[in-house]
TrEMBL record:
<dbReference type="InterPro" id="IPR002155">
    <property type="entry name" value="Thiolase"/>
</dbReference>
<dbReference type="InterPro" id="IPR016039">
    <property type="entry name" value="Thiolase-like"/>
</dbReference>
<feature type="domain" description="Thiolase C-terminal">
    <location>
        <begin position="246"/>
        <end position="395"/>
    </location>
</feature>
<protein>
    <submittedName>
        <fullName>Acetyl-CoA acetyltransferase</fullName>
    </submittedName>
</protein>
<dbReference type="InterPro" id="IPR055140">
    <property type="entry name" value="Thiolase_C_2"/>
</dbReference>
<dbReference type="Pfam" id="PF22691">
    <property type="entry name" value="Thiolase_C_1"/>
</dbReference>
Amino acid sequence: MPPADSIRRIGRRVAVAGVALSDGGRVDEATPYALHAQAARRALTDAGIDRSLVDGLASAGLGTFAPVEVAEYLGLRPTWVDSTSVGGSTWEVMASHAADAIAQGRANAVLLVYGSTARADLKARRRTADLSFGTRGPLQFEAPYGHTLIAKYAMAARRHMHEYGTTLEQLAQVAVQARANAAANPDAMYREPVTVDDVLSGPVIADPFTKLHCCIRSDGGCAALLVAEDLVPDLATRPVWILGSGTAVSHTTMSEWEDFTVSPAATSGRTAFAQAGVTPFDIDLAEIYDAFTYMTLVTLEDLGFCAKGEGGSFVENGRLLRDGDLPVNTDGGGLSACHPGMRGLFLLVEAVRQLRGEAGDGRQVRRRDGALPELAVASGTGGWFCSSGTLVLGRG
């Protein structure tokens, strides 16, 4: 393999070369740094790439000088870095940035890595649940009134119900099908089946959301390695290509959100599909950020899988199951598999594994003719629909 600095050129295709999860679910003894390192080592092993070839690092959410501290902990000296932090969509936005940098010859191999002990920290009382992200800037006008993150999502869901007749039963279907997908995932934190009645009868967290409408809290980490096409012949695994990407931001305060029924995925998705030269109807599976059931429903609308207002009927009849019309969150998503914080990178990991055909018995998505899926979309959402990043991925 030629030295990394000898293969920089403009206009290169970009592939996801390796993906991995760290230990997850309940991890009481590890630090977030240890989960970063574990996921990074596994992703590099998956790709068959030596860490000396990694010249880019993207990381957020840890340390005072992210990603400098993470790079030091991993023993890397990157010449390209990204610490963009826009909530759950951070990783799709970072992947878009990294793909552009690689295509332009500014980097050859960029490692995206994340790790969090959100659950363990809460259990050990090293942290508490936050009322607000901060009281400076525009947020100062909402924070004093106790307007929590969950309440913001709940308000948006209620607006969709009011505008389009979306029902609680339809929202509950998202949680039920996510749990059914998680049942075949040995890495999922919760695998036992739930019913619509189970979802509706749970304790109310923020009207209309009961407990099972909301994501779980877990520990865990993951990593993905993006490389230039020059490195693809030396990979240990089949590449998955980044065909298109799009990013968008919307608002911080709810008063500046023009329409509670439209997320920034309406913009990021349109850009990603256009760049990839495909339509939503070409997609074989979708990995969508699901901190709450409403997120899945409205993102499906905004990505164009159904018309605005039709998300409720779209998610019925098992359409989101692994063998449904549009498999969604095939690992169980944030509602059942894991949610250690900014979960967007997990969407990319699952999409890549499905496109490679590595999901395993009982979990692998297949097309109607039995072939492996060809196209996937990973769409992350940050804040309370404040930001969005969407990636279209294709099997190599």
